[in-house]
Amino acid sequence: MKRLAPYLLILPGGLWLLIFLVVPMVFMASVSTQEGDIINGFVQTFDFSVYGDALTRYQTQFLRSVGYGLVGTVVSIAMAYPVAYWIAFRGGSRKSTYLLLVLLPFFVSFVLRTVSWKFLLADDGLLLSPLKSMGLVAQDFHVLQTTVAVIGGLVYNYLPFMILPIYVALERIDPRVVEAAQDLYAARSQAFTKVVLPLSLPGVFAGVLMTFVPMTADYVNAGILGGPSNTMIGNIIQTEYLVNTDYPTAAALSFTLMAVMLVGIFAYARALGTENVLEAAAR
Amino acid sequence: MSTPEITRPRVPRVRFGERLLRGYVWLVIAWLFLPIVVMIVFGFNDTASKSNVTWQGFTLRWWGRLGDYPELVGAVVNSLKVALLATLITTVIGTLMGLALGRYRFRGQGATNLALFAAIASPELVMGASLLSLFVSAGVDTGFWTVVVAHVLFSLSFVAITVRARVIGLDRSVEEAARDLGASTWITFWRVTFPMILPGVVSGALLAFALSIDDFVITQFTSGAMETFPLWIWGATRIGIPPQVNILGTLIFAVGVVIAVVNTVTARRRT
């Protein structure tokens, strides 16, 4: 009984993960090599040419998504690091209040937040129409349906996932270590680059994981804030699955996306230690 | 420059940098709040039609007309039902997993950790797409229950990991004392272990609820004809978002704020 205890405890959750996480991946792989349509049904053909076809057809969107994900992640690091740094080292007794302030906006639904941005950035919206009436920007100037709007939306929506892990890493740094560096005649900038920055890197790594993957696979921001030239791979997969019901193409695209992401993630997690990244991710 | 004694001439410059950093942080916070403030304010907009885009003056009338769109009300109710049920299931099975992972060493532990990690790290889009592939292949009609299944899946890891962290931090000698005093395993668990891991269970459950009520991507793939609050908004973006959505968003936001503030205040009192 004692030896069985962990297995009994793990059983319901483990089965859930097996049936609804692992098995569906197998089904998705299977669907990607089927042929047919929604009316006449699909037949398993093990025809892998769908991968080549889908990737040639949508390589622009695929590369664009990875590009948006990379730019968004880099912008997020640049934006989040000073915020996390200030809260961790200058927050004093109010640290948790500042963190709460950073997190509060995310109690509003993801879609609603993005819709609110669309509304703010509209051509005759709250931000642009005063600027236009003052003549500060051209009348035909627009932000919506541009790359800037989509990447801005991505950064906005995933910024806390970058701030939190960096904050956690910075917060763990013993202030005495920084003092020691200064006692040993390190200039402020040196104490930062030689001591604080390296110690905070695990947080940055976790943050990259928590932002790059969902940004690359996102389709809400491109769908609401972007235009036809901002379509990301997520929009294609969503349309193929839910509108065109071209399951094989959609499955092939998502399978490729997953493979690219998972290989990256596991290489990344292995290099840094799964449990550390997991723990940082769960905070 | 490097001797710490000569700090005097450096003081103003450092202070300027500090002030700049402080100003920057508040700027970022303002940026984060901007769309939220707009959402709240436009719930009070005296707009004539469904398109709620320009400020027409203050009104409270939309608060009395929350039920104008029955599908919207139904969608909010669906969101709440899914979130409650998914949170309940996730909390139970996630807590059990957390206990097993924090307390025992067993075969398959590595694989379980890996699966929990994969459930957090894989993009929602891929999870949604693969679940839909499963349901389509198995001939399962998507709807309420498939959404619940999906929501349990993506919040399970968060509950399991928070509980595991709590279990690892437990002082085992307290349990040993209970057993030495004659308590059975069952009594020890409910009277000693469970109260000690409860904070972890509660924060895991809150997180699961927050994730579920906000979820869009996986829900869109697994919901079939059922609509939830985020799905209704997505559908309405093209035709215009009525002020009722702003108000419902504000209400959900207010509940979240109250819970978070209470949580922070009590956490501070504990330490």
UniProtKB/TrEMBL annotation, chain A:
InterPro entries found in the cross-reference section: MetI-like, MetI-like_sf
The subcellular location is: Cell membrane
One Pfam family cited in the UniProt record for this chain:
BPD_transp_1
The reply on keyword Transmembrane helix is yes
> Which PROSITE patterns does the record match to this protein?
ABC_TM1
Q: How does it sit in the membrane?
A: Multi-pass membrane protein
**Gene3D superfamilies recorded for this chain?**
MetI-like (1.10.3720.10)
Entry keyword set: Cell membrane, Membrane, Transmembrane, Transmembrane helix, Transport
Taking every annotated instance into account, which residue ranges of this chain make up the domain ABC transmembrane type-1?
Answer: 62-268
Superkingdom field: Bacteria
Span-the-membrane segments of this chain are 7-27, 66-87, 99-121, 141-170, 191-213, 250-269
Q: What biological-process GO terms show up in the record?
A: transmembrane transport
The GO cellular component terms are: plasma membrane
Asked if Ion transport is a keyword of the record, the answer is no
- Report the sequence similarity comment from the record: Belongs to the binding-protein-dependent transport system permease family. CysTW subfamily.
Name used for this protein in its record: Spermidine/putrescine transport system permease protein
From TrEMBL, chain B:
Pfam families tied to this protein: BPD_transp_1 (PF00528)
Highest taxon in the source lineage: Bacteria
**Main location group:** membrane
Q: Does the keyword Transmembrane apply?
A: yes
Q: Transmembrane: is it a keyword of this entry?
A: yes
> How does this chain sit within the bilayer?
Multi-pass membrane protein
Name a GO CC annotation attached to this entry.
plasma membrane
Q: Which residues cross the membrane?
A: 21-44, 82-102, 114-136, 142-163, 189-213, 247-266
Where is each ABC transmembrane type-1 domain found?
76-263
Which UniProt key words apply to this protein? Cell membrane, Membrane, Transmembrane, Transmembrane helix, Transport
Q: Which PROSITE patterns match?
A: ABC_TM1 (PS50928)
Q: Where in the cell is it found?
A: Cell membrane
* One GO term of the biological process aspect: transmembrane transport
Q: Which InterPro entries match?
A: Bact_Polyamine_Transport (IPR051789), MetI-like (IPR000515), MetI-like_sf (IPR035906)
Q: In which family does this protein belong, per the annotation?
A: Belongs to the binding-protein-dependent transport system permease family. CysTW subfamily.
Q: What is this protein called?
A: Spermidine/putrescine transport system permease protein
Q: Which organism is it from?
A: Streptosporangium saharense
